[in-house]
Structures are given as C-alpha cells and as structure tokens.
Amino acid sequence: MIFHIKKEFLSAIILSAIISISGCKNQQTKTPQKPNIILFLVDDMGWQDTSEPFYHERTPFNELYHTPNMERLAAQGMKFTQAYSHSICSPTRVSLMSGMNAARHRVTNWTLKRNASNDAKHPTLNMPDWNVNGMQPTDSIENTVHVTPLAQILNDNGYFTIHCGKAHFGAIGTPGENPSNLGFNINIAGYAAGAPGSYQGLNDFSSTRSNGGNVWDVPGLEKYHGKDINLTEALTREAIQALDSATGLGQPFFLYMSHYAVHAPIEEDHRFIQKYMDKGMNPIEAKYASMLESMDKSLGDLMDYVRDNGLSENTIILFTSDNGGLSAVVRGGEPHTHNKPLSSGKGSAHEGGIREPMIVSWPGITKQNSSTDAYLIIEDFFPTILELADINDYKTIQKVDGQSFTSILKGTQASTNDRALFWHFPNNWGPTGPGIGASSTIRKGDWKLIYYHTDQSFELFNIPNDIGESMNLAEKEGEIINELAKELGDYLRSVNAQMPSEKLTGKQVPWPDEVLM
Ligand code: CA
After folding, report:
1. How much is the pTM?
2. What is the CATH number of the domain that holds 41?
C-alpha cells in the first residue's frame, strides 16, 4: 500500500515536473522578446497569379487561380498594391539580403557559374563586367559584391535563422553559393542555381536523376528521392521541422521560406491539377495554376504551424515574389502566365516584370484586411526587417539604399510615393518582349521613365492613368522627361553604375540626361 502511495506520489511529482517544464517552454515560445519573422518569397510569381486581387478590381486571372491562404493572410494584414522588385532573380535576391539597389551591387543579371556571364550576345552593345559571381560574405572573390547579409545581422542578434528553398545568391564554387556562409543556422536545399531540375520526388527533384551530377539537381532532400512528393511540400515539411528546432531552443526565428515554385520547369502538382483542367484551361496554364495552389498550401501550413504553436501574436509574416510572371516565350512553347492588365513580364522594365503581389501581417500593428498604394522596392525589406526585429544598432560593409516601410505598416505614414525608385539592367537577358532589354528606369510619383541603352530611346508612362503602359508620352512631356532623366542620371553616377558600351566605337552608352542635352 505504502509502496503504491509512494509510486503515485512519485508519478505526480514527475507529471508536475513535466507540466512545469513544458509550461516553461510554452511560456518561452509564446512570449520571446523579439518577434518571429517569416519571409515567404515566391519565385517568378506574377502580380495577377492569385485569387487575391492586387488591382482595384478583380480580373479574370483572379477567378482562374485559387490561393485561399493568400486571402487569409491578406485578411489578417496589409496588402501592398505597388510593391516592386527587380525584373530578374539574382538582382532581387541580392538586394533583399544586402539592402542595396542593383545599380550599386552590380549583380544585375542572374548568376550560376563562376566567372561566366549569362548575358546573351547583343548585336551592337558589349555588356559591362558586372558581378557575375554574385554576393559574398568576403572580399576575397573576384567579380562579387562583399556584404553583411541580412541573416547574419539577425543571427548576431539572437535569431535562429533558417534558409529553406532557393538561394541563388552566389556562383558555384564561391562561399556565397551556400546560405550557411551568409548567416543562416540551417540551410535546406539552397545553392547556386535558380531553378530545380524537377518538382517531383519521383524524379529525385532532378531533370536527369543524375545523383548530383547535374547543375539543376536540388541538393539535400535525398530522403524524399523516389517518393511521390512535390518539392514545395517537401520544403514545407523541412521548414516546419526546422521551426521546431528554433522554438525548442526558445529563440526567436527568422524563416526565409524561399520557394523554387513557381519558376520553370512548369510541372503539375497532381494534388491540385484536376480542377484547373476541368475549368478548360490549357495544360501549361493548368499546371502553373496547380503550382500556385501548391505554394499557397505551403503558406497555409506555415500559418497553421504558427497558430497551433501559440505563436500567432508574435510572428510577422511577409509575402512577396522576386520578379514578374514569365510571360515571354522561352525555348518555344506557350507562355503560362500573362500579368494583365500589366504589360509584359519577367525580364521587363514594364510593370509586368517588376510589380509583385505583397502582403504583410504584423499582429496587433497592421490593420486587418487593409490595403495601401504606397510604393516600395525590394531593397526596402532589409532595413524594414531589422526594424521589425528591433535591431537598430548594426553595421554593414555595404551602403544600404533601402528605406524602412514600418511606418506604412503602422499606419503612421500614408504614402512614400514622392520618393524616386530606380532600376538598372545593363544586360541582355535573351527573350524578347515589351520593355525587355538593357535599360535604366526611374519611378517618381505617377511617372515612370525607361531609358533603353540599345537605341537611347525613352518611354514615359503615367502609371495610375495607364497601368498597361500602352501610351508612351515621351514625345509630349518634354519637361517631365528632362527632370526624370536628370534625376536618373544623377543617381546612376552617384552609385557608380555600370553601362554597356557600343561595339562599333567602344564608347560607353551615354547617361540618360546626356542624350537629352
Ligand atoms: Ca525569379
């Protein structure tokens, strides 16, 4: 009897200790000093590729796609209708992690192999010697920009930092290709390349099932090889496991959930494809729609994780994409997305190339179900995220160009639309289409001026009046062009921007304001 009592007593003590320990853990995870931050970045997702409208009216594309978790996030946070990135992967990603404008960091086209430019041959221009090896945590690598990465600063200030998915920061064989060298505690599947060989576990996420022999083979997910699982799902499961590690340690986390989706190859997620086929969409569009819904499920799974672990009140979620939807025809075939009412798509200086879906949920701060037309550009995420993390005293090797948009999130500033935004792309991407080609661009207020390096011509658009950029007002609005070209030229010179040169004469392409003199 005594023995039984003792045993029960002992059990009670053990149980109480377990409750107390787990209670302690819950208390730690529920109220860390700093907020958890999830930066959810989609690849190549267009402004219209969602059932959540980012235009002032719903469009046919909003009816085609099904992204319920983006709608859920928008309902709990703030939607940005004029969020900009650069028009190609690497420039955007380097700007995001460095806070620098592309004109300054000089990683102006996409990166892959060391010392190899991905510029297509151009008939009349030689492209400049840009930073083909990407972004680096050291100054010892040629043709790179040396930076203090965002994740490093967060990590130095107590954050558990997780990289999950596509990296695409630095060339193969450089430290910058591995997110573990850029301040991330954990790197899941990130490396130099900017696309997966395949989204199918049954294909080992490889175009050739080559066991790591192909440059596009996604690394580090071997446990899913040969299994019927989509890459987006595999990454989400791995991210959630990494979040468990972070919450187990009681540290605030920064999760950079950087999906390979919805970049090419356009492959179906069979969990979601049927309803799009039933709608009568053509196969490539239906596959793309299934990838979008697959990505959206990942967002929902992470939101569920946050909720189910009692972290909702202290977790900020930022959602955006790295460039516009790919509307150009690449290697034959049909485009899988269109970005309309915007003009053009990925690779273009037109809105279709640079305007992104963006939502931020900052519990208790952002007004629920709110929307703003305040514009911003991708390098603004760098100072913003550090401010969200309450890190105000930090040093960077690089000069940060981005400006924090926390005042927009707080509702203390209605707009920032009197500042100038800049894009610089002295490169030849390859595909053709409206606004695609070597160019420099300024947006200021309602106006956007694009300066094309090849023929030194201009396009001037009033964006609110002409969102589809169909009316070039360059001939009519001389005064505005002069003003914007001067500001663009001044900016490019101030950051020591690179320009192409003429093959015939060897002369550098003139600055935009020099053309008008
Ligand atoms: Ca991209």
Report:
1. 0.93
2. 3.40.720.10
